[in-house]
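Researcher: Can you fold this with magnesium ion in place?
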Amino acid sequence: MCSEPKPTILFTKGEIETTVRRLAGEISRDYRGKYPLLIGVLKGSFMFMADLIRLLDFPLEVEFIRLSSYGKDKESSGKVKVVQGLRSQIKGRDVLVIEDIVDTGLTTAFLLDYLQKKKPASLRLCSLTDKPSRRKAPVIIDYLGFTVPNKFLVGYGLDWNEKFRNLPDIGVLEDEE
Ligand code: 5GP
Ligand code: MG
């Protein structure tokens, strides 16, 4: 069996907590009293979503959507499709999409367009991380955690071949090729 790559820590658990707290403050300020629908993009956003909503002390709903865009390795296939859809009504709701990362932006741009067609009252995006150097499709991030370098991130929900999602920190995998 080949040896596992070892991530180098980029953001510690503590730094992530501080950032999630800041985002929760910004979201609370804008959504308190609105009964928003938060849509997490699986699988990468599950841990961020879980931590974020614990800090939101007003009524809201949680949904998840699963999209496929990545192949097995570190490169996006560029094609996006909905693998597991939504059960909630979007029409007329204040929708906040919760992403782990906006990289090329292709996935998020597709999702925002898909949701906009369902006529929400409002539609905004919260992303834990942003890798602007790789952008191919323009995306406005209303609530952003960290801007990150052009490296492959793992941990805190983010995977490499389904591994490392359980790391409490966010690390980077250096290219070994
Ligand atoms: P995009 O369409 O913006 O290129 O990225 C779509 C998805 O690819 C992200 O939601 C995420 O699941 C995955 N992705 C992009 N960059 C990274 C990264 O650095 N690490 C991991 N683990 N996934 C990434
Ligand atoms: Mg994602």
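Model: Folded with magnesium ion in place. The chain has a mean pLDDT of 92.
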